[in-house]
Write a structure and sequence with these properties.
By secondary structure, the protein is mainly alpha-helical. Helices cover 48% and strands 5% of the residues. It contains seven helices and three strands. A three-stranded antiparallel beta sheet has the order 1-2-3. Helix 2 runs antiparallel to helix 3, helix 2 runs antiparallel to helix 6 and helix 3 packs antiparallel against helix 5.
Length: 188
Amino acid sequence: MRNKKITLQDIAGFCPEEAIWKMMSDVSAFLIKEKNAYNLSPHNIIVAGESFIIESNHETDSDFYAPEQNESMTPGEAQMIWSIGALAYYMATGHIIFGGHGGCYQKEHEYVSLPTLPKGLQALTSVTHKCLCADPQKRIGMNELHLQSLEGLTICKRQERKAYVIKTERKENVKHIGEKWPEEMTEI
């Protein structure tokens, strides 16, 4: 039996913030290094351990194409940036952007409000909005996206460490569960 590779399709909607920053960082770094054009979709972003890689031999999904992109078009940087933003939204929510209609909806409704990510992901929402601008000229650049993704990943890891330290301190201060209970429990 052949091992099935895990793709973004498999983990969408179950991703913590750190994984989304990591995907954006890894994919943007790969695209900067390779200087090749890729149609990005959940089927061709592979989870390889703690990294995300692009495999071009997988099917693509036009729901992750930029509004100005079509099936026969080779994507440029602006189109790949839009796709990364749509993939980040998909990872966070498990839903295709714009109610499942993707970039074609934004093309028909240029001034549609960009969606927000779930509560607690405000920094990630800000970056995805820079990726998902309807006007390709106003989108964030690949190098800037990579730097902001690295920064977001670093901040996210720092916050997780702080949360762990706080949890550890609380556990050490509580000696017995009875000390935490405000009143005596009685049988009903």
